[in-house]
């Protein structure tokens, strides 16, 4: 379906979503649907995983830190795992596995059933109508999901920490906020935003490069997941290095 | 709308399908493209509707090469040419109403919403699809999906209709109705390009016929 490479495709999509308002009459519904599917319908799964991970960090970390008299480090560890490093990675991985594969499958099937041809024949650009709103929706959704994840992960940590030491909720959150640096939030947002951009671009590209056979769809899906995972790792490692260089921590 | 195919050559995976093919159809006339299965009717349909660009040659619309149209003229070309696919090409994750609304929202943004709904309802009633408007298109039978594809193409009041395998999925009763409709459209000046082997289509509508031969294509007028 697409006769050009990933980089020109990405440039085309990004230039298109900068002018998203021009195609709002046809693309807005797709954007809303993408945010609902990725950012809202995944809520239950993300909340559950966030609470479990928050709890797990406390269960594993608190006894060790308490044993060396550094129980207060638990806030720093919660921030570094839930907010800055592990949390964004897990959320991006969930979105890649859930929504990235859905995008590749949906677009691939649309190519096979000639729906993309039909859009072209109606004068509707598949990039403007199908890809740009998905990219934008994915970025918005990842920011939303990350917010849930942080809230629930920390809350899960708080619940479990009470099993070791009874702390009033206000004290717990006051200590946590005092350890939180604004740059932690910036790095978290950059990680999820760039990952959302690349997951959706890679998934859309592989969906649209299906030619005509339905058997190509799972093959493209495998490629999309593999490349999506590599891109997430590269983005997260690069931004973590940037964080270390800038903050010296 | 006059559509002309000039020196069209096209290969698929190193196999020549069209070699210097020429054809022309004038306003209010019908070109029927026929030939055995696998000879390239659907490829011709794709080239005619500018979904695939040929390796060489030109598709001229009212004397202008489609390849060289500016954005505004190309958008007008898309609005003026209704394309109907063999497998309907309806967007599967949209309702029938949303499918029909899509080309209207694309080409007639400024049109009043009530006028858009009026056009959709009128066409849906004409093809007995009004009860399916709020449903997703997977609920439609293949015949109904074909009719819905035709309705979507006619919604913009096109100056030309290009249809791959018309009547292939439609029952006899609806087939007669659609044939009459196509005759009527032709009488109103709409140009038709139909890729079909069906006798009734050729006998009733063909003003010009392009017979595609396997491996090598030639045109007969």
Automatic annotation (TrEMBL), chain A:
<feature type="transmembrane region" description="Helical">
    <location>
        <begin position="180"/>
        <end position="203"/>
    </location>
</feature>
<keyword id="KW-1133">Transmembrane helix</keyword>
<dbReference type="InterPro" id="IPR030802">
    <property type="entry name" value="Permease_MalE"/>
</dbReference>
<feature type="transmembrane region" description="Helical">
    <location>
        <begin position="42"/>
        <end position="65"/>
    </location>
</feature>
<protein>
    <recommendedName>
        <fullName>ABC transporter permease</fullName>
    </recommendedName>
</protein>
<dbReference type="Pfam" id="PF02405">
    <property type="entry name" value="MlaE"/>
</dbReference>
<dbReference type="GO" id="GO:0005548">
    <property type="term" value="F:phospholipid transporter activity"/>
</dbReference>
<keyword id="KW-0472">Membrane</keyword>
<feature type="transmembrane region" description="Helical">
    <location>
        <begin position="139"/>
        <end position="160"/>
    </location>
</feature>
<feature type="transmembrane region" description="Helical">
    <location>
        <begin position="224"/>
        <end position="246"/>
    </location>
</feature>
<dbReference type="GO" id="GO:0043190">
    <property type="term" value="C:ATP-binding cassette (ABC) transporter complex"/>
</dbReference>
<feature type="transmembrane region" description="Helical">
    <location>
        <begin position="77"/>
        <end position="96"/>
    </location>
</feature>
<keyword id="KW-0812">Transmembrane</keyword>
UniProtKB/TrEMBL annotation, chain B:
<keyword id="KW-0547">Nucleotide-binding</keyword>
<dbReference type="GO" id="GO:0022857">
    <property type="term" value="F:transmembrane transporter activity"/>
</dbReference>
<dbReference type="InterPro" id="IPR003439">
    <property type="entry name" value="ABC_transporter-like_ATP-bd"/>
</dbReference>
<dbReference type="GO" id="GO:0005886">
    <property type="term" value="C:plasma membrane"/>
</dbReference>
<dbReference type="GO" id="GO:0016887">
    <property type="term" value="F:ATP hydrolysis activity"/>
</dbReference>
<dbReference type="InterPro" id="IPR003593">
    <property type="entry name" value="AAA+_ATPase"/>
</dbReference>
<keyword id="KW-0067">ATP-binding</keyword>
<dbReference type="InterPro" id="IPR015854">
    <property type="entry name" value="ABC_transpr_LolD-like"/>
</dbReference>
<dbReference type="InterPro" id="IPR017871">
    <property type="entry name" value="ABC_transporter-like_CS"/>
</dbReference>
<protein>
    <recommendedName>
        <fullName>ABC transporter domain-containing protein</fullName>
    </recommendedName>
</protein>
<dbReference type="GO" id="GO:0005524">
    <property type="term" value="F:ATP binding"/>
</dbReference>
<dbReference type="InterPro" id="IPR027417">
    <property type="entry name" value="P-loop_NTPase"/>
</dbReference>
<dbReference type="Pfam" id="PF00005">
    <property type="entry name" value="ABC_tran"/>
</dbReference>
<feature type="domain" description="ABC transporter">
    <location>
        <begin position="3"/>
        <end position="221"/>
    </location>
</feature>
